[in-house]
Every structure is written in structure tokens, then in C-alpha cells.
Amino acid sequence: MPHATINGVSLFFDEHGSGEPVLFHHGYTGSHYSYDDVVPHLAKRYRTFRMDGRGAGDSDRSAKGHSIEQYAADVIGMADHLGLERFTYIGHSMGGVIGYELGLNYASRLDRLVLIAPAPADGVTVPASFRERAAKLHYGKEHAQMLEEAMVLTAQPRSRDLVAARIQHGLSVSDAHFEESWTALETYHKGDRLGEIKTPTLMVAGAADGLLPFNLADFQRLGNATLHVFSRVSHGIPYEIPDEFSAVVLDFLEHGVVTAGTLQAKLREAMAPA
Question: Which of these, 69, 100, 85, 99, lies nearest to 7 by C-alpha position?
Fold first, then answer.
């Protein structure tokens, strides 16, 4: 499996297809496997790369550095390694927050952003009991219990085996990834700066995802964005409905941000005197 040493850590990546570059990043406790059924669609038209963040997937288990800022720097380091001057970034959940950070601090490297059910730009807030229970299940390797709950809480589980494999990948992350990444999501507070992100952005959300209200609020603050909400889909959009998700992304990559404002501007241009 290909790896690159990025900012002192060996990170996994793979490559498929040809054309304009698109780089995928997973969410909290996730991995590149989240995009297994998405990449074949996009690789027909684009040069696609998947990477695993430090402490997760097939990347090395680093002892520290699991902050949103460091994850974003790792994305840029990977792009440098791959020779990508500019690229489209696609990030799920925590990967979406990494996308916010890229848009704020590395805009010159981005062609487009696709933010899939991103965690809140003003920080994740849950009761302490929720986090304590999640940690108990994780450290106890309670795979069977987690599987039963995931099957109920996933609006469109594609198969029991796929959900089980995703849980197993999540259980394999390092303790540092599990703890530090969560703290990073809690303490990230840059929602008031989202208007600074002018990179053409697609926000994708699930109507059955608890993050939907936060996604809608953050979308409204972005500086140049469009929105797609899938009905009867929960948080795992790329692996719940990979075909439908891929079609939306491909449409965005072709047409960019289309809003009432862009259509009105197009009309004014068409009606302007020659």
C-alpha cells in the first residue's frame, strides 16, 4: 500500500483515474474505505486520491498532532507530495471541518470544496454522558452492541457486513486519534469566519442526520456555496447512498455553484447591450 511521510508521519494514500485532481478525506474514526463505492464513479472523469489521517485507517499511529489545523496541514503536505498545485477537496464529517480550515487558510490551493455532513463549525456540543458512553463502547471493543445500534440509526444501511466492517475500522484507530480528534471537534470555533471562504463549495447533508440543523446554519454563512439535502439519509452519506451522492458531486464539479443569484447575474449579462 502506498504511503508518504507527511509532517513526520507515514500516511496512506491511493490514486485512481485521470484528469483534474480530487482528494478525499474521511471523518472522525473513519478511513478511506468510506469512499470505496464513490471513487469508481468519480475516477471515470477525475484523478482521485484518498488519504487516511494520522492515527486512522492504514496510516501510522502517531502519538500527537490530531488537531484540525494539523489535519489540514497534512492534507496540504499530501498534495505537495502528489505534486498537486490545486485540487478539489472532499471531506466527510470531521473531514468537512478540515475543509473549513483549508478554505480559510489554504484557499489558493483549492479549486472546489465538497463538505459532507460536516461537524459544526462552532464546535461539537454533547452531554458528558454521551461521550462517556461512546468511550466505553470504543475501549471495550463492544462491536456487537455498536453494530446493533448502527443498524437502527443508519437510515439506509446497505448491508450488515458493510456496517460491521466500518465499525471495525473505527475501533482500530489510535487512542490519540480517538481522544485528541474529539477534543479538536469540540474546541473548533470558526463559524463566524465562514463567510471568508470564497472557494466554490457544495454542502451535502442528510435529512435524518442529527447534524442537519448545524449544516444548514453553517451553509448560510459560507461565502460561495450551494446545498444538497438527501431525504431519508443519515450521517454516512458516502456509504449509505454512494451512487446518488456521486451523481450530485459530479454535477457540482461540472457546473459549480448555481444559485438564484448566479442565474440572475447570467440573465443580466445576457440582456446587457452588445
Answer: 69
Domain ranges of the chain: 3-268
Here the contacts of 254-261 (C-beta below 8 Å, separation 24 or greater) are 256/112, 256/200, 257/200, 257/201, 257/202, 257/224, 257/225, 257/226, 258/226, 259/226
Q: Which CATH code is given to the segment(s) 3-268?
A: 3.40.50.1820
Grid cell of 269 as nine digits: 449579462
**CA–CA gap between residue 228 and residue 37 (Å, rounded):** 19
What are 57-84's pLDDT values in tens digits?
A: 999 999 999 999 999 999 999 999 999 9
End-to-end CA distance of the chain: 57
Residue 155 carries which side chain, given as an amino acid letter? A
Instruction: Name the pTM for this structure.
Output: 0.97
Amino acid 229 reads V
